[in-house]
Specification:
The structure holds 2 protein chains of 2 kinds. By secondary structure, chain A is mainly β. Chain A has strands at about 5, 10-15, 20-25, 30-35, 45-50, 55, 65-70, 75-80, 85-95, 100-105, 105-110. In chain A, strands 2, 4, 5, 6, 9, 10 and 11 form a 7-stranded mixed β-sheet that branches. In chain A, strands 1-3-8-7 form a 4-stranded antiparallel β-sheet, with no helix packed on it. Chain A is globular. The chains are: A mainly beta, B mainly beta.
Chain lengths: ~110, ~110
């Protein structure tokens, strides 16, 4: 079972709002990822957590703040976003970094 | 600069046709190449290739890697309308840590 669960599936937020995207996996994977995907573009890596520690931050603006409370959960806190941040946000996990990554179904974010 | 290029960008075929999708790469520290299928949601994993010349098969789909010429192909035989999707190629590199570089994808449409 390769299941990565993301909530919410859809989110509309204003530019002054604070919201969070959540991701959960119970496969015992120790690497978790956030990707951003705009329409007709491939996924772009944002953050990687390895063993609950931030391993990669791809120079993402500080209005995106990741958090890994434990080995099963990954959050992405959103604050003061811009309309151009509207996209599909994909969470993924892998057994460890360097193993096949499996994606969740994504959270569609619209910033108005 | 590391890059992954997929071709064609889009393709329209009829049911029953055979298609070949291409992925070429120029990266340092290649580790593996992965194929994903993306419909309207998150990418789903198809194949992971690490060794040259060894074909991976799953039903009507097969894939092979050529590490000398730096490319991979994904073949789909007897296409069906359910094969309509974007096919993403991702190359994993190691440079102190592990990262995936995605190609832009091939948009396949299979007509009944």
């Amino acid at each position: 079972d390769t299941e990565v669960t993301q909530t919410p599936k859809h989110l509309v937020m204003g530019m002054t709002n604070k919201k969070s995207l959540k991701c959960e996996q119970h496969m015992g994977h120790r690497a978790m990822y956030w990707y951003k995907q705009k329409a007709k573009k491939p996924p772009e890596l944002m953050f990687v957590y390895s063993y609950e520690k931030l391993s990669i931050n791809e120079s993402v603006p500080s209005r995106f703040s990741p958090e890994c409370p434990n080995s099963s959960l990954l959050n992405l806190h959103l604050h003061a976003l811009q309309p151009e941040d509207s996209a599909l946000y994909l969470c993924a996990s892998s057994q460890t970094q360097g193993n096949t990554i499996y994606f969740g179904e994504g959270s569609w974010l619209t910033v108005v | 600069e590391d890059k992954v290029v997929q071709s064609p960008l889009s393709l329209v075929v009829h049911e029953g046709d055979t298609v070949t999708l291409n992925c070429s790469y120029e990266v340092t520290n290649f580790r593996s190449l992965l194929w994903y299928k993306q419909e309207k949601k998150a990418p789903t994993f198809l194949f992971m290739l690490t060794s040259s010349g060894i074909e991976k098969k799953s039903g009507r789909l097969s894939s092979i890697l050529d590490k000398k010429e730096l490319f991979s192909i994904l073949n789909i035989t007897a296409t069906q309308t359910g094969d309509s999707a974007i096919y993403l190629c991702a190359v994993e590199i190691t440079s102190g840590t592990y990262k995936y570089i995605f190609g832009t994808g091939t948009r396949l449409k299979v007509l009944a």
